[in-house]
Predict the 3D structure of the following.
Amino acid sequence: MKWTTAFIPTLREDPQDAEVISHKLMMRAALIRKLTAGAYSYLPLGFKALYKVQNIIREEMVKAGAQEVLLPALQPLELWKKTSRDKDLGEVMIKFRDRHGKITCLGPTHEEVITDLVSREISSYRDMPKTLFQIQTKFRDELRPRFGVLRSCEFIMKDAYSFDANEKDMELSYKKMYDAYERIFSRCGLKYIIVEADPGVMGGGLSHEFMVPAPSGEDIVVVCDSCGYKASKDVFVSKAKEPKDGDPCPKCGKKIKLQNTIEIGHTFKLGTKYSKPLGAKFSDRDGALRDIIMGCYGIGVNRIIASLIEISNDKDGIIWPAAIAPFEIDILPLNMKNDKIVKISDKIYHDLIDKHIDAIIDDRDVSAGIKFKDADLIGFPYQLIVSEKNIKNNIVELKDRKTQKAEEIKIDEVTKRVKGVLYGD
Amino acid sequence: MKWTTAFIPTLREDPQDAEVISHKLMMRAALIRKLTAGAYSYLPLGFKALYKVQNIIREEMVKAGAQEVLLPALQPLELWKKTSRDKDLGEVMIKFRDRHGKITCLGPTHEEVITDLVSREISSYRDMPKTLFQIQTKFRDELRPRFGVLRSCEFIMKDAYSFDANEKDMELSYKKMYDAYERIFSRCGLKYIIVEADPGVMGGGLSHEFMVPAPSGEDIVVVCDSCGYKASKDVFVSKAKEPKDGDPCPKCGKKIKLQNTIEIGHTFKLGTKYSKPLGAKFSDRDGALRDIIMGCYGIGVNRIIASLIEISNDKDGIIWPAAIAPFEIDILPLNMKNDKIVKISDKIYHDLIDKHIDAIIDDRDVSAGIKFKDADLIGFPYQLIVSEKNIKNNIVELKDRKTQKAEEIKIDEVTKRVKGVLYGD
């Protein structure tokens, strides 16, 4: 992509209503814009990162044997009455009366819809195991939407649901998703911890939260460095009193510490919490009718991006891992009035594009300073600098955004070297 | 994918509430299920087709220079009051009062949101031309949702918006989208006609509708076979009286005919209809502040699938073009108790998958009749039949779903031949 044709309205100043660093940087780097409280538009650079995250999730879900579906956002309230979750969710659930007087709600999550669907289509133990997932928009009327896309009223969730004939099989389905989650977050460049958690409004048995440690995080987890015990504060509180640094670990007795963490994934062993009230039964090997054993697995897709930025930035801007960066490399012709610089930069750009490297060329006729500032702010993993001094020696500079270290490379070896740093080829 | 692990609950009988063939077949072929009036769940096969259509659209939009964004479904009603379209849309627009008492609506379309966004970010003629698009869910409270996904309350739309400094540039942007639409519909295997249309609630100047002729279509267009004149009935009515077959063509005077068509795309020259009330202005070359000239371009993504099925089916089921089929080829081992059949089928399956051919293997231990019935019903473009008789002669049969003609191919030439029929390799 050429910068002059792209839509990248970066901002010099922090927006006034942004409280956390990811929100500030997502606005300044032209990833998002606010439409109204809790609802954000993704601009092209933000959408590209979001799309790359979605594709990583999709790949790993399919690898784990899950099949993609797409369920409606519009849901009949009656379905929620069957599980009484309309009461549990309360004002968080957005409801409206349609022109025929029927009360419809906007799905804050999809356990009811998918269980209702499966109850009509799965009838035998032979139809299982099945894991279905979707990448879809959820709606929640948050009391206090804040932190940009970290807590908004409309957000993209990957939600998966497993259906099994017995607890043992459910454990296998659960493990597959758990492992897939580890691969997803690693590929997205996130450092995360996994804690035992309170299932909350989802109900059911054990659950695990995938958390990204960050100073600005609102969720507090209890960590024991001695034995490795990790739990959400809610679980801990139910076992003991309000915890503080230095309290004894419930497992080994050594000292625990508290850590701030902005949740990116949650896996739940639901058991029969939804299958029972919604009548999702199957005939077992012995002919007996039993309730389907379920699991559910959520990932906040927008949150992956915000969490990454929250922990991967410096004073100049965002630092993207290549796998989810809006572009992998930014080519900077430092003087657009120098024909030789323009020609060489353009050739490098086309060579990289031909090799399917996701490159952008900053072909604006602006100062080198502005180009460097924007490149650092948006945080493309690599910058390729084409300057008058360098091309005289038949070289260009390849700068690593994170370390800010530059190496000189021969012009005719650019593609090979860039593939090397990006993919280890 | 192996059929035994897939989620493909085909139905033997037509669903009672389905009026048109696409709705019947989408239900029977396990593409969709109804959740409530006007809201459908896509099952894995339906989602796969939908996803392939989305990717074709995405590719052609990017090729035409458009950049992808993602705008919120939740929109403040005030924005709609600025253009008075809250009144135009009336009860079609879904509105609710949030917990703070603010009236929010669910976007039935996004002209207001994108124009408001662009009004803050584009300030000079140098910032244009720009074309932004999204593939996103729209909500409309239809008076009478019907025909499955052809007229539902929740649907996926590709909506693009162009922003130009003058009429001449807008014509160029419009032409690019118009050409992209032709490529998209052709790649999806749709036979379509393009008619002059009434812009309706969108407003602005000239518009074009992309229509698929189908006997069940609700939209009537006027066609003149002599001079090629084509117009929607609404345009025609505004020029003359209610038309009927044999009326004189307004262009050449010869006889017109009426044709039934379920619109799949619409392109609009909006002019300044939205930029003016929403204050989307720019400084021109001469320093003067002018209103941005806009175009907008919609495609009903779900409708592409339903329209295709509406015109591409026979008594046995759907006939998919390979480009958007849920799977490109269905391998049918006719007897799962014959080890040699199972082994050969399995090897063929893995060979095809290795060559990135989107294959499914019907590994169910059911009769050949059931396998053929499901293969024809879902309508995979090709069936690869592995039977006892054939493997004795070291061959398998490759059957074309559309013509039902089968050719014998040597087992070790299967991959090559399948690539040949699918991609012309």
Notes: The first helix of chain B runs from residue 21 to 28.
